[in-house]
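FW: tagging you since you asked about this chain on Friday. Here's the raw sequence from the shared folder, copied in full. Didn't touch anything.
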Amino acid sequence: MGEGQTVHLADDDEDDRMLIKDALEEANANVKVVEAEDGKELLKNVKDSDDLSNTVVMVDMNMPKMNGIEAIKEIRSEPELAALPTVMLSTSDNPDLKNKALAAGADDFFVKPSSFRVLLEIVNKILFKFLKRS
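HL: got it, structure written out here
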């Protein structure tokens, strides 16, 4: 299992992207990670994808050009993308932010952890929930 699985990852912090990508690859060596630095690049990458059938989007909240909530709203507004699973990641544990993300259409919300071990646990939850990785 795990063939053909893709994660579209958007985060303006290169170090965070690297850590999340490392965790994704440790959780599932076959996952393809498509990186973006902001919501606009994320949308371009998603729209340019040939197959979104086994894909999840992980998006940071605070990014330049288009933030995570704006990106999720844009994904939800496009009929061919509306059902794409999206997960919001944020350094903030503010319940209002979580509620805004979920109201915008995020399927889940996670606070970025301070340890790689906890990040790996979060990534495993996301892969299992949205990509049916066992």
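FW: The first strand starts at residue 6 and ends at 10.
HL: agreed, and The domain at 6-131 is CATH 3.40.50.2300 (Rossmann fold).
FW: great, closing this out.
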